[in-house]
Specification:
This protein has 263 residues and is α/β, with parallel strands linked by helices. The protein has a single domain, classed as Uracil-DNA glycosylase-like domain (Uracil-DNA Glycosylase, subunit E). It is 36% helix and 11% strand. The chain contains nine helices and six strands. A six-stranded mixed beta sheet has the order 2-1-3-6-5-4, sandwiched between helices. The radius of gyration is 18 Å and the shape is globular. The relative contact order is 0.15. The mean pLDDT is 94. Belongs to the uracil-DNA glycosylase (UDG) superfamily. Type 5 (UDGb) family. This is Type-5 uracil-DNA glycosylase. It holds the Pfam family UDG. One of its GO terms (biological process) is base-excision repair. Keywords: 4Fe-4S, DNA damage, DNA repair, Hydrolase, Iron, Iron-sulfur, Metal-binding.
């Protein structure tokens, strides 16, 4: 690889992602990326200055790849890894309160093999769903800049392309992910309505592709952040309902329906 497309160059994601032919190759390439200096500095600083509860952890401190089977009909798109969550554990939505809520809901719906996720080697499996994000490095204050989002965009674009032809539905967790995803879908040939669909919890849009006969269901869900779950803006039942709806539209077996008791 030439120095012009090395991992520390801003064009590394764009130059690399498009030529990768499998999700395994993509995930490996993602973990080597150093294209955004501010994010590299922050993720590595978090690993050096650890929280007391995690002082014995060997932090992942690299970009966090997507997680889930390569033929998943359903995708979840979040925001970015948390500094002491996925940046520590190496798996999306693992090691922080948002992940605790999400994996409990995924298990309740039947999309995860267990209700908790501890680290990337804990044996947890996802069924019919893959989790990813528009930004793969932990950002300060959980706020990537527009430039960082755009630099990271080719990874998400290629990931969604490689999930085809199985992909049938996408659940987007939060407004940031929704806004980041729309241009990716447009560039991939999905026809966005005008005005563009607005994010909201329970929002649902069916997109048609420029190739006849293809459609994709896009669903919105509040992000399972500590603020949203603590205030009750997003309850476990609300999250389960959107996940179950997404699974149904994607054709993924689902064992939960509204009114089903918690297990």
């Amino acid at each position: 690889m030439s120095s012009a497309t090395g991992p520390e160059e801003p064009d590394f994601p764009a130059a690399t992602a498009a030529r990768l032919d499998g999700l395994g190759l993509l995930d490996t390439a993602v973990t080597t990326c150093r294209a955004c200096p501010r994010l590299v500095a922050w993720r590595e600083e978090a690993a050096r200055v650890r929280r007391r509860a995690y002082r014995d952890w060997d932090y992942w401190a690299r970009p966090v790849p997507g997680f889930g089977p390569p033929d998943a009909p359903l995708a979840l798109v979040g925001l970015a890894p948390a500094a002491h969550g996925a940046n520590r554990t190496g798996r999306m939505f693992t090691g922080d309160p948002a992940g605790d809520v999400l994996y409990a809901a995924l298990h309740a719906v039947g999309l995860a093999s267990r209700p908790t996720s501890v680290h990337r080697g804990d044996g947890l499996e996802l069924h019919g769903v893959r989790i990813t994000a528009p930004v793969h490095c932990a950002p300060p204050e959980n706020r990537p800049t527009p430039a960082e989002r755009d630099t990271c965009r080719p990874w998400l674009a290629r990931e969604l392309t490689l999930l085809q032809p199985a992909l049938r539905a996408v659940v987007v967790l939060g407004g940031f992910g929704w806004q980041a995803l729309l241009p990716v879908l447009r560039d991939a040939g999905w026809e966005l309505p005008r005005p563009q669909p607005v994010f909201g919890h329970g929002a649902e849009v069916t997109l048609r592709h420029t190739e006849p006969g293809r459609e994709l269901h896009l669903l919105g869900c509040y992000h399972p952040s500590r603020r949203n779950t603590f205030t009750g803006r997003l309850t476990p039942a609300m999250l389960r309902a959107v996940l179950a709806r997404g699974a149904g539209l994607a054709g993924v077996p689902c064992r939960w329906r509204p009114g089903t008791p918690d297990t």
